[in-house]
Amino acid sequence: MINKNQVEGKLKEIGGKIQEEFGDAIDSPTQEAKGQATKVEGKAQKTMGDAQEKVEEKLDDVARRPH
Fold it and tell me: What residue ranges in the chain does DSSP mark as E strands?
């Protein structure tokens, strides 16, 4: 199951990549750097969402086990 952090993180990562490429196209190091920062932030948020999903799956597995 995909969670909010995975989706938002991926969207930030894509948006950052677009901003980075736009900055490169218009020769704007500032825009390029902002895009890189957004991309890294998105990747970190997606990674956090991935970890959150794994924890939730483990908790579900434990809850389903017979006691």
Answer: none
